Amino acid sequence: MHKGLIVQKFGGSSVANVARIQNVARRVVSYKKKGCALVVVVSALGDTTDELIELANKINPEPSEREMDMLLSTGEQISVALLAMAIHKLGFEAISFTGAQVGIITDTSHTRARIIKINADKIKEELRKGRIVIVAGFQGVTLNQDITTLGRGGSDLTAVALAKELEASACEIYTDVEGIYTTDPRIEPKARKIAQITYEEMLEMASLGAQVMQARSIEVAKKFNVPIHVRSSFSEKPGTLIIKEVKRMEDVVVTGVTLNRNEAKFTICNVPDRPGVAAKIFKELSSGGINVDMIVQNVSHTRQTDISFTVNKTNTAKTMRIVKQAASKIGAGDILEDRDIARVSVVGVGMKSHPGVAATMFGALAKNKINIEMISTSDISISCIIQKKFAQEAVRALHEKFGLAK
Amino acid sequence: MHKGLIVQKFGGSSVANVARIQNVARRVVSYKKKGCALVVVVSALGDTTDELIELANKINPEPSEREMDMLLSTGEQISVALLAMAIHKLGFEAISFTGAQVGIITDTSHTRARIIKINADKIKEELRKGRIVIVAGFQGVTLNQDITTLGRGGSDLTAVALAKELEASACEIYTDVEGIYTTDPRIEPKARKIAQITYEEMLEMASLGAQVMQARSIEVAKKFNVPIHVRSSFSEKPGTLIIKEVKRMEDVVVTGVTLNRNEAKFTICNVPDRPGVAAKIFKELSSGGINVDMIVQNVSHTRQTDISFTVNKTNTAKTMRIVKQAASKIGAGDILEDRDIARVSVVGVGMKSHPGVAATMFGALAKNKINIEMISTSDISISCIIQKKFAQEAVRALHEKFGLAK
User: Fold this and answer.
1) d(CA A234, CA B155)
2) Nearest residue on chain B to A56, judged by CA atoms?
């Protein structure tokens, strides 16, 4: 471990304008003054990435992924150059690099590339010179020198991967909220900042709707045991530590409540109850590029059953087309689509050793007269599909029931 | 020479918005349909470069040149990606590259780098695959992988250098005017498009105020004898050919009239007429980074003389400071500054073999009661400094006198 080396990542909202870039520069320099060695990863300014995507779509609604990466990678390149200039203005040495320049080598899966290796020699050399090293997040380069990007939220991955490669003593993810909360504070004002959370819980929360950090970057942090500190770039307060194991004073069963309103539910009625029939349907969806989330099939007492599943709302038209074809092939009945649903989930490693969490959850919802339409569980989470109009009420009820309030 | 290979360069105004990018795509594809192999060099969209410079200056009024290049090179990277997408939309294969990716190797003089060599293997490989190759203009990379830019108008240089390296059969510079004119059509509506012009004349016109092409790129074209076709991206009409030697039907003495209103005149009075005194003044200016343009010193009949010179208007304050110090050291008198001047010039290789051009020029100005304040001549040009209020009248009078009108 490189004692005193910190990797800091600043998201788009932290560098959205000149004043915020100057704010980031001051914060970085304040750590430099304390004697830290610094590698700073930056995202594109504010909504730059969305604006570039919009521009591209005007020219070609199905742009080549290679060219899309060529286009989008400019956003972070602008950020790093401006941050370097802002740091120079404060009288400190800094040097900016693109992903290609610091040897972030990826595979060739444009727009969602995976990092193969990092040749960190250049960064190490600049750190030895005492410089603050600024690296464009979200991007890499193939062995053939084509520019790639790492997918939405990819700057988090850049930061975690660099922290691992450089054996940094800390990886700080700066954002516009103060850390990870027990639930979305816009829904439940009593939501509390979580001081420490495990990788496992964070992964579950990210996949169930919490949007603070990219899930892939947490996976990498977990794999290499890189401690992450999620905190606000507008405040000095400590945020949330994401680490391997959390020693909690009390027995915490549920760590957080999440909500996802971006899913739609499909039900295929009267599916013949024979082996391989469900497989057929979901194979068709998968070859159509549709990611199916929750799947529920009840035990049948006749020779037919109903199968329900959820998909992201952006895919409903395509899903309906594929399912209709598949259903007619296998001789199933009607297909129902419901876009007015929400998934509410409770997450916590404590569940592993505390039975009865599901019963408590179902009870709390029942007490509020909220009907549960589908249930799915994992080792450390329980999710219920309910009608969307009850979503906020459900979140608040569960937050209260599991004692997460301030 | 690669028969049928054309290098086309499109300036910022040609790709200023989505519709114009689509227009460029259609034009490029129309050449591809004719069976040409194409390398397309593109500048940044519209005023992108100026906007980025402004942003940088807000953050740091004296930005590091390395970081400036990092920032500005994104402009062309955006253009090439969007143009590739627009060409794909028309059903043709195209691939975009940054200067670094196609191996445009430069020295380390950031913001005004010089091309050392081009490793064109990647371009050749893509051309063999039948693809349209799109290259970001204005930029290169050092051997240490730092991004560099080639100075204002550097995309012209990229195009000319690639045309030379690839032995292209043509190098077309597309712009928002139809070619090189006998003088600025905004000043003299009778200005005529010049069909052919020599490198020498074009260089002289560029250095005297004509702004269509970057002077350095013409120098390179001249050195390697790369024929250039300057033409409009909004019209199919032929533009102006810039070539080594022009066979003209008639004896043309003057090819064009140029005007430069961006200079200021300084006069140092009563300079002691001793060897080395003038040298001292101009050495100080040169070490201060001031580029002096025209210098005039009259023969003196006493032991004192007046020295006049012109500099770019942006440098007047600094020039005055340096000249004041120098003048007091050498014991010279007052210093006069005049910002209300203009330089009007006539250019033409025909002058070499036709005496009397100066007399004709002075006569035409005298006839219009325009006083000449300074005169300077080269092999193929004559320039006069006059009062700015007479500038347009002078241009029109000379344009008429030398028979350049339509």
Assistant:
1) 41
2) B82
pLDDT given at position A199: 95
pLDDT, mean of residues A252-260: 91
Burial of A314 (0-12, 13-18, 19+ CB in 10 A): exposed
Give the alpha-carbon dihedral of B217, B219, B223, B227, to 10 degrees. Answer: 60
Query: Measured between CB atoms, which of B52, B56, B77 is closest to A70?
Result: B77
Q: Is residue B295 part of a domain?
A: no
Over chain B (406 residues), the average pLDDT of each successive run of 10 is: 85 95 97 96 94 95 95 98 98 98 96 95 97 98 97 94 96 93 92 94 86 87 96 93 83 89 92 84 88 81 85 89 91 92 93 86 94 90 94 96 87
Q: Is residue B8 part of a domain?
A: yes
d(CA A220, nearest CA chain B) in Å: 29
Q: What is the residue-averaged pLDDT of chain A?
A: 92
- Residue A167: left if φ>0, alpha if ψ -120 to 50, beta else—which one? left
Q: Domains in chain A: how many in total?
A: 1
**What's the confidence (pLDDT) of residue A297?**
81
What are A322-339's pLDDT values in tens digits?
999 999 988 888 999 999
For chain A, how are helix, strand and coil distributed in percent, rounded to 5?
40, 30, 35
Q: Which residue of A has its CA nearest to B22?
A: A59
According to the model, what pLDDT value does residue B336 have? 93
Distance of residue A398 Cα from the nearest chain B Cα, in angstroms: 47
Asked if B161 contacts B12 with a C-beta cutoff of 8 angstroms, the reply is no
In a domain, residue A137? The reply is yes
Binning pLDDT at 50, 70 and 90, where does residue A356 land? Answer: confident
pTM: 0.85
Is residue A66 within 8 angstroms of chain B, CB to CB?
A: yes
Residue of B nearest to A53 (CA): B82
How many inter-chain contacts (A to B, CB under 8 Å) are there? 97
Of A22, A59, A89, the CB nearest to B85: A59
> Of A64, A68, A81, which has the smallest distance from its Cβ to B67's Cβ?
A81
> What's B22's domain CATH number?
3.40.1160.10
A-chain CB neighbours of B68 within 8 Å are 81
Which of A49, A71, A97, A135 would you mutate first to test chain B, the one with the most B CBs within 10 A?
A71
Which residues 101-130 of chain A have a CB within 8 Å of chain B?
101
Q: What is the pLDDT of residue B32?
A: 96
Q: Judge whether B326 lies within some domain.
A: no
Q: Domain span at residue A157?
A: 2-176
Q: Rounded to whole angstroms, how far apart are CA atoms B139 and B120?
A: 15
Q: Is A78 on the interface with B (CB under 8 A)?
A: yes
CA-nearest of B120, B137, B118, B136 to B128 is B120
Residues of chain A found within 8 Å of residue B138, distances taken between Cβ atoms: none
Pick from B70, B82, B84: which is nearest to A81 by CB?
B70
User: How many angstroms separate the CA atoms of A71 and A49, rounded?
Assistant: 9
Q: Which pLDDT does position B300 carry in this prediction?
A: 66
ipTM given for this complex: 0.84
Six-digit token pair at B209? 């105020």
Q: Token digits for B402? A: 């030398």
pLDDT greater than 80 at residue A111? yes
